[in-house]
Sequence to fold (706 residues):
Amino acid sequence: MELKNDTLLRALLRQPVDRTPVWIMRQAGRYLPEYLKTRAEAGSFMDLCQTPELACEVTLQPLRRFSLDAAIIFSDILTIPDVMGLKLFFVAGEGPKFENPIRSADDIRKLPSPDVNESLGYVMDAISLTRHELDGKVPLIGFSGSPWTLATYMVEGGSSRTFSRTKKLIYQEPEMAHELLGKLANTVTDYLNAQIESGAQAVQIFDTWGGALSAKAYQDFSLKYMAQIVAGLKRENEGRRVPVILFSKGCNTQLEALANTGCDALGVDWTISLNEARARVGDRVALQGNLDPAILLADKQVVRREVNETLNSFGQGNGHVFNLGHGITPDVDPDNLAALINAVSELSPGFHS
Amino acid sequence: MELKNDTLLRALLRQPVDRTPVWIMRQAGRYLPEYLKTRAEAGSFMDLCQTPELACEVTLQPLRRFSLDAAIIFSDILTIPDVMGLKLFFVAGEGPKFENPIRSADDIRKLPSPDVNESLGYVMDAISLTRHELDGKVPLIGFSGSPWTLATYMVEGGSSRTFSRTKKLIYQEPEMAHELLGKLANTVTDYLNAQIESGAQAVQIFDTWGGALSAKAYQDFSLKYMAQIVAGLKRENEGRRVPVILFSKGCNTQLEALANTGCDALGVDWTISLNEARARVGDRVALQGNLDPAILLADKQVVRREVNETLNSFGQGNGHVFNLGHGITPDVDPDNLAALINAVSELSPGFHS
Fold:
């Protein structure tokens, strides 16, 4: 099936486009009543992830409402640790938890290398099914957590504000930390390659907690493993290049280093202007971002003004994918997201003339 | 009384010193058993803040254990909103809350301008008493929250992860946000000047949540007001210059702008190397920081190695004050902090030869 709208893929490769493509991190999510309905019917969050028909359904929901330029497969970054035996579960209001968090060097040594096509076959099935349902309307994005970000959940046993256990591991037992991160990098590489082979047309690595690390520790314990993954990915499929996006939140002092990993695009949070980010990475990579998600809590006029500000900050030329600087929050009115997408559609052609 | 150890004040002004001075954010805090004892005896946290003898006692406790180069008056950044009528209280395990958070434009218009010498007289009394007790041993640092950081607590009603209400205010009703921030800037200026007149020999502004803002919003809603405060401070007292330190956590893309406010020094978190920070600010300001507090959870050899790394990252020369990149956490063993301070004392003279 031919891809009818390849604006996203072209922009990620810094090729000419006539408008700025847009998709939204967590676009299939709790701000949508239809998502909440499907999730309630599914039973648990994990049931939703693990049932390809349901994962496909929620992936497609935002595309029925909005003129988005991409779908992103509905899943969770913690499926990898789950199938490595840590057993993921969710407690309402408390976020993700693991039944078997990593508590010793021995736990790291014993971690299996899962066959992702088998243990995470439900993700591949959801991707195949969604590609079929999309029928070439827009490209489908696959994703994974970064090794560092996955490791924080695995070592802390869930979410954290200080990452005390994981940081103690990297400082006190760096060789064990590297063994864990190396295993994760191999599995993430397999996982993203399997997603690409199943039909993902671009992939994004979410390094949500890279910003918790010192500049030096970031290079040694996060960046290095993302670069290793980028080098191991299948970069062409179905006769097209498969762009790779790295999104390392809170790591704007590292943009140059991130741009040198060999990825195609960088996700950028809102704490740096796109203008400055672009000046720093030059023409090495495209940039994706970077509206503060909180702007969607204001009214439509404000949303439109800030969309214009963001487009203007990137400026004229190719290589910009419009997105938020982090995931959309559950308290957003979907009509405000519609206003954002309309504003990008109406205002962005002026930046591609 | 003569100041016997002025290493901190000299380093903050980038004057020659023979070793790098050190103090620790939240050095009077929950990691110290003697602090926990005094706090338990005081009754509530607010009783501890509001009783000058007790605030003085906990301010001095870390200096009895460690060779620190400064004391910092024990207090809380939220005393200002408290005396503006919001009424601060603490719920165990939940952090600070306000009885009367800001919920409308009218709440902002009605906010009083407190006479800080009267309503916050307990802070001035604690400073006078602590200066007397210190007897010139080391300088005493005063502090305040930044207008933006105070505003987040006042508008959210307490701590927040997303700052939705405060961001909605700045985007939707910027003129009301400016009215609030302007009032806070005036009160913070009065408050810090009163602290200086009571004996604070350096002052620090904590912009703990500056990093939540977009680059542009940061300039308009946080930086601008800190610059206004810096311009309004009494910079000399008792025949000495009173250095002003700005600490804007998570704002490393803004270091140049911060250095241009007229402050003497910048607090730096651990997500940027001191080497890079120094290259960016040049000789305009001194730098204070920036060890990741989590390193204090590793063993003493690791602490020493990372202290050396931090000293080495700043490199040879003046203008460095050793500190963590954020407050010390309650789970730290005080002996590890002793190892940090000893390491700075032993290793830093080599960087001032």
Notes: The radius of gyration of chain A is 19 Å.
